[in-house]
Design goal:
- The protein is of the alpha+beta class.
- It folds into three domains: 207 residues, no CATH class; 101 residues, Beta-Lactamase, CATH 3.30.450; 127 residues, Histidine kinase-like ATPase, C-terminal domain (Heat Shock Protein 90), CATH 3.30.565.10.
- The chain has a six-stranded antiparallel β-sheet. A five-stranded mixed β-sheet has the order 7-8-9-11-10, with helices on one face.
- The longest helix is centred in the middle third of the chain and has 59 residues.
- 26% of the residues are buried.
Length: 552
């Protein structure tokens, strides 16, 4: 069988093609018969030589005839071997085998008849031919039956010239048993041959598929832009593709055996390389991990996805992964984060400046203008009581009333500009006071604030208060709705403020450029590290939602 595979005489049939498999089996059978005919011929000639020597010693007068018959038998078998050895399965193998063997059988029969041998002895010699064919040729019981029938035909033709020690009813069972035995041996040999052939075909196909898969994998890994690697349990590199070696600035052979830990100088998203290997070996699945690597060209940022490799028993034997150079993306993201942080700090400074201006302006209004208005009111009252005409007194009284109204408006404005009660009462209570002050007969404001709301950093409380103040003022003055809801929640380290109205709503793009209130809210949200979302549509009201960290 190995000879057939080495010589290319057995071709693997197409997968799943029954007709191709049957044709391949038949071709392999004929190739095996052709390749083994030399062994069969040697096996036939060996006992023939023994019989020839025995008969020549017993009947010296017939020695020339015996030698001639042996030569004829050797010539017939040699001719068959010569044809099959050079042409193989390309000729009519079965016909060649049967023809040459028939000629050899005739020579054998002539020898036995000439020397007057017993019929049982000739039958044994012909049985040797049939048994040898069954053992050597994997051609099955049908072809063996034809071969055996030819041998029985020779025995039957020679029978009248032979002497038999056994009677007919003893000879026939022996012949039948011998024939059946040859058929059984031939069929068993053929089935074993075909089973082995199919097994080797399967192995051959599996090896070719494995080689194709290996070639595909190698082609993918070696031509990938990312670098693909493998390491042992201690982190020593066992494989790295060309791209990975090129990125690190080495040849692949220079990296094999090196420990990956000496290149990874910093893990940003999960531990260090040893911790990662321990987690992977324990069965954990890790997300993509970003690390800073040291290369001959400088430091780069690498994103890696790794997994553990197990043997048949489930033991971890190493690690594999694919990594990508994300230096450009990482540096761009870092620059963007830095820029965002700068903008946040700028917004925070601007908010602080505006808040200081509000405080200063509120203080000036409350302590300066309002006090001066009070003084003017006192002077008017003094003038009215000093004795003036009734019309003048009436005008002074009205002026004093107007002055008081203006002073009250200014005090309210000063309180809005500078929420003096915020440090004392806290954010929740100040929001309730704010909502109550903005309520009107046309618009009601419902406030939901948790009783156990913790005190926050001053900049966060002021920022949330100002956003709520702007959102409530917009809802009352511009929404035209009947109900406004303000809710404040604190959970999982996040503070959430939501102001919702049932008013007319708006489209952001339709607002005039002068509508700076929304922009101011967004700036304040960014200043305290929060996020502001505004959802509105014409006829569906408006929802303003702020989410920011509880800690400043």
């Amino acid at each position: 069988m190995l000879y057939l595979f080495r010589e290319g005489l057995v071709a693997t049939p197409s997968v799943g093609n029954a007709s191709s498999t049957a044709a391949a089996l038949d071709h392999a059978t004929r190739a095996a018969i052709a390749s083994r005919f030399g062994h069969f011929a040697a096996g036939c000639l060996a006992p023939a030589v023994v019989w020839a020597v025995t008969f020549a010693w017993a009947v010296p007068d017939l020695a020339p005839l015996i030698v001639l018959a042996l030569a004829a038998e050797a010539g017939a078998l040699g001719a068959g071997w010569w044809v099959l050895d050079r042409r193989g399965a390309a000729v009519a193998v079965i016909a060649t085998v049967c023809a040459t063997t028939l000629l050899a059988g005739i020579a054998t029969t002539v020898t036995f008849v000439a020397v007057g041998a017993g019929g049982e002895v000739l039958g044994f010699a012909l049985f040797t031919f049939c048994a040898l064919a069954a053992v050597v040729f994997p051609w099955g019981w049908r072809r063996e039956a034809g071969f055996t029938a030819g041998a029985l035909l020779l025995l039957g033709i020679a029978a009248p010239s032979l002497r038999f020690a056994l009677v007919d009813h003893e000879v026939v069972p022996i012949v039948v048993i011998a024939a059946v035995l040859c058929l059984a041996i031939a069929e068993g040999h053929a089935r074993a041959f075909h089973a082995e052939l199919r097994r080797r075909w399967g192995e051959d196909r599996a090896q070719r598929e494995l080689a194709a898969s290996r070639d595909t994998y190698r082609d993918i890994t070696e031509n990938a832009r990312d670098f693909i690697w493998a390491s042992d349990l201690d982190g020593r590199i066992t494989y790295i593709n060309e791209a990975g070696a090129r990125i690190l600035g080495f040849a692949p052979a220079d990296l094999v055996g090196k420990n990956v830990d000496q290149y990874a100088v910093g893990i940003t998203t999960y531990g260090n390389p040893a911790d990662m290997r321990a987690r992977l070996a324990a069965g954990a699945t890790l997300p993509p991990t970003v690390a800073e690597w040291r290369t001959t060209k400088g430091r780069i940022w690498v994103e890696a996805v790794a997994y553990a490799v197990h043997d048949a028993a489930g033991r971890t034997i190493g690690f594999r992964g694919i990594s990508r150079d994300i230096t450009e993306h990482w540096l761009a993201a870092a620059a963007l984060r830095e820029r965002e942080e700068q903008l946040r700090r700028m917004a925070l400074r601007q908010a602080a400046i505006r808040e200081e201006e509000r405080k200063r302006l509120g203080f000036d209004l409350h302590e300066g203008v309002c006090q001066e208005l009070v003084g003017i009111g006192i002077l008017i009252e003094a003038a009215r009581r000093s004795g003036v005409s009734p019309p003048a007194a009436d005008m002074l009284a009205r002026a004093q009333g107007y002055l008081g109204t203006v002073g009250e408006h200014l005090r309210l404005l000063a309180r809005e500009l500078r929420p003096l009660q915020l440090p004392d009462l806290g954010l929740g209570e100040c929001l309730r006071i704010l909502a109550k002050g903005l309520e009107s007969a046309e618009t009601s404001i419902a406030v939901g604030v948790p009783a156990d709301l913790p005190r926050l950093a001053e900049n966060i409380e002021i920022g949330v208060y100002r956003i709520a103040q702007e959102a409530l003022a917009n809802a009352v003055r511009h929404a035209g709705g009947a109900r406004v809801t303000l809710s404040l929640e604190a959970a999982a380290g996040t503070l959430a403020l939501e102001v919702r109205d049932d008013g007319r709503g708006f489209e952001r793009g339709s607002l005039p450029a002068a509508a700076v209130g929304l922009v101011a809210m967004e700036e304040r949200a960014a200043a305290i590290g929060g996020r502001l979302r505004i959802r509105s549509a014409p006829g569906n009201g408006t929802t303003v939602r702020l989410e920011c960290p509880l800690a400043g």
